[in-house]
Write a structure and sequence with these properties.
single chain; mainly alpha
């Protein structure tokens, strides 16, 4: 778990921001939670290691036959 935080500022189209916030609220998530998960997924997809990465490896669902 991270002990400190850093701010990430980005510019986004107002309509996309509103749609994103509405979707997050509908899923009972904050936009920050979703962005943090997107960043973790992106880093994992590209094999980038970082100090606060969880040691637990998520299992992929078994393929259906």
């Amino acid at each position: 778990m991270e002990s400190k935080t850093a701010r990430l500022t980005l510019l986004i189209d107002p309509a996309k921001k509103a749609a994103f916030e509405a979707l997050c609220a509908a899923q009972d998530l904050t936009p920050s939670q979703v962005v943090r998960q997107l960043i973790r997924d992106y880093l994992d997809r590209h094999g980038v290691a970082y100090p606060t990465r969880s040691k637990v490896v998520a299992r992929k669902p078994a393929a259906r036959r």
